[in-house]
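Sequence, please.
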């Protein structure tokens, strides 16, 4: 069983803006106002250049509490739940058991007081975040087996993307059954001949 999907970005565009290429996933159970995070951002990738990276299948969770303390990341799989509790040493993140949904990773606030920001990570890079998780509530995360890609300027890896970026022509690709693939960008240019930037999934190798 593969541990990560091997992805390669290839720039065959005529982009003259040196656009940043960003990759993200959407938390399908996100609440209103919860915007996706730029999981991977590629910069300064010139025409005909490539950039290869892994898309790990495993996830991790971590929290930042109201005192700005950051927990170590813990491995997580869909169907698993975690909790934040106050023990003699302070706020602690620990496994709790099964989540209430087999497709979700959940982080419960089981403290008497104090909120936290719950994050889920892929390959140690932030994938999604829920802020303001108060006692007796939880952060819940669920993702489709797909990845989104787009190009723009105001994007920073590990930070929430704004609604203007998300309103652009971002492309979603299913990763079901894929071991490796190339995501190729085309289009761009200047003046009257400029074309929208587009993305295609190519050189797909399926899981044996």
């Amino acid at each position: 069983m593969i541990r990560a999907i091997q992805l390669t970005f290839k720039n065959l565009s005529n982009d003259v803006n040196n656009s940043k290429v960003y990759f993200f996933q959407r938390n399908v159970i996100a609440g209103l106002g919860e915007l996706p995070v730029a999981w991977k951002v590629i910069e300064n990738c010139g025409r005909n250049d490539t950039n290869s990276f892994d898309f790990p299948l495993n996830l991790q969770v971590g929290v930042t509490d109201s005192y700005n303390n950051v927990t170590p990341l813990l491995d997580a799989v869909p169907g698993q739940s975690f909790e934040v509790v106050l023990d003699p040493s302070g706020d602690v993140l620990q496994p709790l058991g099964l989540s209430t949904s087999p497709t979700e990773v959940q982080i419960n606030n089981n403290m008497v007081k104090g909120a936290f920001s719950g994050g889920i990570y892929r390959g140690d890079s932030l994938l999604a975040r829920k802020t303001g998780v108060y006692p007796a509530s939880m952060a819940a995360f669920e993702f489709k087996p797909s990845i989104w890609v787009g190009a723009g300027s105001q994007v920073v890896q590990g930070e929430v993307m704004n609604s203007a970026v998300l309103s652009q022509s971002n492309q979603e690709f299913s990763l079901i059954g894929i071991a490796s693939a190339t995501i190729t960008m085309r289009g761009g240019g200047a003046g009257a001949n400029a074309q929208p930037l587009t993305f295609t999934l190519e050189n797909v190798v399926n899981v044996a």
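The chain has a mean pLDDT of 94.
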